[in-house]
Design a protein that fits this description.
- With 467 residues, the chain is α/β, with parallel strands linked by helices.
- The chain is built from 14 helices and 16 strands.
- The protein starts with a helix and ends in a 5-residue tail after the last helix.
- It binds adenosine-5'-diphosphate (ADP), aspartic acid and magnesium ion (MG).
Length: 467
């Protein structure tokens, strides 16, 4: 046999082995709190996940309102207000009893659901008796997603949909820097999936994870989107669908301006900027895993499944301004030092202070005599201030908002800056960041002007006049 044919046979057998070992193609479908917040909605979710025959991992949030209540319970425990904590737990339990009553009918399954509720509410009763700690706080916050997935699984059992509940705590992990690592999740998740080769529908919890110490932890508020994207990256999903209560990413914050329109297509970079700078529809970190592993993301509406929604891929689809978003609770810090600013090494020393306190900087501007930065966490502000004072005068403004204008290549869009500044004239702007990315211009303003600015931009940049 000639060497050409031997090479062909070798390539062929490697290819076949690779195909055999490759995980089956799956998609990820994530449903947020409002999408599962009522028994009827949960039933609609069941219809959506069974509408096609594709293999899928379904990621669920807690029922809407639950995580807020759990945060409240935790806060009450932290100040030792056990009486009010008890009241919150009781009314939450009542809510879940009603929910189960409306969701399930088969008596055997209702009994199983009652046992699930008893188990989780017993846990919440026990914590009333023990002393509060950060680890306990994380355990409390995890109850929402544990409950929603178990109840959903029982509903699927009732309507006889074959599926498997995969505990997120068995495969979602954070590293020692509290960052999720797709590689680790991939290995752990593959083990779980391989144990169930015939299952087409897997259900798991969003938001919750284990940390490097093996304790229960979470991906921060709104973190179920992040779970979905991490899973989609880990299994190289065909698509990561984020099902929510609106028909995709809109051009402006619908909670603040009354006329907004959905965006059909945008790039990962645009979506990541919008998510990071305040578009609540996506968790701030939820785009990078999908982007890195090139998994398309679709934002879809559970209440209107036929709406186009937003497709997020490498392609932006168009150039120019696409959307604006705002991020609150920003602190601006100005360091003035005529002596040192232009000396090389000065900025490094300033940045090292923020690095030391693990506080990330969002915006930065410089002048001859000073540098201004913004941060979104005040936890170490006193320490940071003290150390910066060694370099010059430090001025701090709290309660600021970053308003970001995002769009593919907006920095190259003619007339963009004139239209932007015409639109916001009359609103005092504390900082402007332009050129850091080709897709973003950010303005820092006092929080009090946020609504006015978003409305002005809606009219000036999108021609959507509220008046
Ligand atoms: P879920 O519970 O499904 O995760 P969220 O409440 O976290 O849903 O996110 C959806 C909400 O995000 C919408 O109801 C909307 O009010 C808000 N939102 C803020 N900015 C935007 C935007 N630019 N486009 C769409 N929705 C936005
Ligand atoms: N239940 C969590 C929260 O409310 C996570 C999520 O909904 O994405 O923050
Ligand atoms: Mg959300």
């Amino acid at each position: 046999m000639g060497s050409f044919w031997i090479a062909q046979i070798l390539v062929g057998s490697v290819y076949l082995r690779l195909r055999k070992n490759r995980c089956k193609i799956m998609k990820v479908m994530k449903f947020g709190g409002t999408s599962v917040g009522k028994p009827q909605r949960m039933k609609e979710v069941a219809a959506l996940i069974t509408a096609d025959n594709e293999s899928k991992i379904v990621v669920l949030s807690a029922l809407s309102g639950t995580t807020n209540t759990l945060v409240e319970i935790s806060n009450l425990l932290a100040v030792n207000d056990r009486q009010n904590a008890r009241q919150c737990i009781d009314s939450l339990e009542q809510h879940y009893n009603h929910f189960v009553g409306e969701l399930l009918t088969d008596i055997n399954i209702v009994q199983k659901a009652q046992r699930v509720l008893a188990e989780h509410f017993e846990f919440l009763s026990i914590i009333l008796k023990i002393s509060f700690s950060e680890a306990l706080n994380k355990d409390i916050l995890a109850q929402g997603e544990l409950l929603s997935t178990k109840l959903f699984s029982l509903y699927l059992e009732e309507i006889k949909v074959p599926h498997k509940l995969l505990p997120a705590l068995d495969f979602m992990t954070l590293d020692t820097h509290d960052e999720p690592q797709v590689g680790t999740i991939k290995v752990k998740l593959a083990q779980q999936l391989q144990r169930n080769p015939d299952i087409k529908i897997f259900i798991t919890q969003g938001f919750i994870t284990r940390n490097a110490k093996g304790e229960v932890d979470n991906l921060k508020r709104g973190g179920s989107d992040y779970t979905a994207s991490l899973i989609a990256a880990a299994i190289n999903a065909s698509v990561c669908e984020i099902w929510t209560d609106i028909d995709g990413m809109h051009n402006n914050d619908p909670r603040i301006v009354s006329i907004t329109r959905p965006i059909e297509q945008m790039s990962f970079e645009e979506a990541a900027e919008l998510a990071y700078f305040g578009a609540k529809i996506l968790h701030p970190a939820s785009i990078w895993p999908a982007q890195f592993y090139n998994v398309p993301v679709r934002l879809l509406n559970t209440m209107d499944a036929s709406a186009k929604g937003t497709l997020i891929t490498e392609q932006a689809g168009s150039t120019g301004v696409k959307a604006v978003a705002a991020k609150d609770y920003i602190t601006a810090i100005r360091i003035k030092s005529s002596r040192m600013l232009l000396a090389y090494g000065f900025l490094r020393k300033v940045f090292e202070v923020f690095e030391k306190y693990k506080t990330s900087i969002d915006m930065i501007t410089t002048s001859e005599v000073g540098v201004s930065v913004t941060i979104d966490s005040d936890i170490f502000l006193p320490e940071i201030r003290k150390e910066l004072e060694a370099f010059g005068t430090v001025e701090i403004d709290t309660n600021q908002s970053i308003v970001s204008i995002v769009g593919n290549e907006i920095n190259d869009t003619p007339d963009m800056m004139r239209r932007l500044f015409d639109a916001v004239s009359g609103i005092p702007v504390r900082m402007v960041s332009y050129g850091g990315s080709r897709h973003n211009v950010s303005l820092l303003i006092a929080r009090a002007y946020k609504e006015q600015m978003l409305q002005a931009l809606n009219a000036g940049l999108f021609g959507l006049d509220e008046s």
